[in-house]
């Protein structure tokens, strides 16, 4: 097992999930709950299952498409997303 990759993926996902909607849902559910362990187990298994699906989907796409094509698609997608953010009207400007 590649421990550096394991640690890196843990840190990146942990930081990305802090303050995420799944965390807010867990806080909301556990606020008036008598069984916080059930909330923890439910939200933990949901995150693990979603991550498993992402890994399996990524592996499948990685086997179907060449790496260079995947990198190009990702780069173009991020560039288009950035450009759309620049051209989108600010919320204060929308009436």
From TrEMBL:
Intracellular or extracellular location(s): Membrane
Transmembrane portions of the chain: 35-57, 69-88
Keyword Membrane: yes
GO molecular function annotations of the record: metal ion transmembrane transporter activity
Protein name per UniProt: GDT1 family protein
InterPro entries: GDT1-like
Family: Belongs to the GDT1 family.
Source organism per UniProt: Acaryochloris marina (strain MBIC 11017)
Signal peptide: none
Membrane topology: Multi-pass membrane protein
Domain of life assignment: Bacteria
GO cellular component: membrane
UniProt keywords, alphabetically: Membrane, Transmembrane, Transmembrane helix
Main location: membrane
